Amino acid sequence: MSATAPQHTGSVANADLPLYGELGMTFMQFPLVRDIQASLADVVVSGVPFDMATSGRPGSRLGPQAIRQASANLIWEGARWPWKFALDDHLTVTDSGNVRFKHGEPQTMVDGLEAHIGAILNAGKSALTFGGDHFISLPILRAYAKKHGPLAIVHVDAHTDTYSGGSQYDHGTIFHHAVEEGLIDTEHSIQIGIRTAYTYEGHPFEVLDAAWVGDNGPQAVLEKIRARVGDKPVYLSFDIDGIDPAFAPGTGTPVAAGISIDCALKIVRGLQGVDLVGMDLVEVAPAYDHAEITALAAATLALEYLYVLAANKQAKA
């Protein structure tokens, strides 16, 4: 999964990684790793610059680059507020660059991403993955289910993504397919921030819609999450459009009346003690961003998640 530039022979480029998938900088300036198996990292960051499954505005293929660039605003602090330790005191993180696939051939992304995440998990590490559109969660969940069995999912989003009428590659159908494939333990899974239509009868997940979250606050959300997931391995899938477009306008399918970035950070920060095994952060589309606030929100959420993993690791030591 190299992040090097495409190799050119004459006028023909190697299409194993689209030009827009080139790596500008690593997340938080973490070391770039090429050999995952030999890495000593606890967590491997990956980018998936893919948005061919988008039903709204395109552009999330540039999300991984934007999130990494925005992380430059977070590096100077040393120990991230309000944590009492520096991340690298307890957690080792590397960045593996972007997953390779052939542009215009989405199945190469599906196959390559599942294999890439599988390699991370088989090396005894966990994955933090930046999209790209939300469709990338499906191959990731396939790899995780092979390792952990059906997962408890904490899913933050404006949409349930359980719609059954989409195409084979559709960012609105991922959790429908994941349930059908047995990748998710629905009895222990929960969706947060939903504020678009879905079929209520027979819906497989508990839902805390955005209005409920706004009325009850992050502490009540955390109580619901803990009661739902129990001691199951938990995968966190965070669509940036779960946040209100006032705080995250740079996304393909913005929906008004979402949760605030403050609320979102308190929810992620409050997941200490939960058996978190992986996270993806998707749908950042920088072309619609203003002053990089969406990318900054995404980078901050990702860093907060890493601090939670570090706190969990410290507690087990």
Task: Report a brief summary of the structure.
With 317 residues, the protein is α/β, with parallel strands linked by helices.
Mean of all residue-level pLDDT scores: 93
Strand order of the largest sheet: 4-3-5-10-9-6-7-8
Order of helices and strands: EEEHEHEHEHEEHEHEH
SS summary, helix count: 7
Question: What's the total count of β strands?
Answer: 10
Biggest β-sheet, characterized? 8 strands, parallel
Distance between the termini: 32 Å
Strand content range: 15-25%
Radius of gyration: 18 Å
Regions with little confidence, pLDDT below 50 for 5+ residues: 1-14
In percent, how helical is the residue content? 25-40%
**Any idea what the shape is?**
globular
Structural class: alpha/beta
Oligomer: single chain
Give me the secondary-structure topology.
Layout: E1 8-9, E2 12-13, E3 43-48, H1 63-70, E4 93-98, H2 106-122, E5 126-131, H3 137-148, E6 152-156, H4 174-180, E7 190-194, E8 206-209, H5 210-229, E9 234-239, H6 261-269, E10 276-282, H7 293-316
Parallel strand pairs: 3-4, 3-5, 5-10, 6-7, 6-9, 7-8, 9-10
Antiparallel strand pairs: 1-2
Helix pairs in contact: 1-7, 2-3, 3-4, 5-6, 6-7
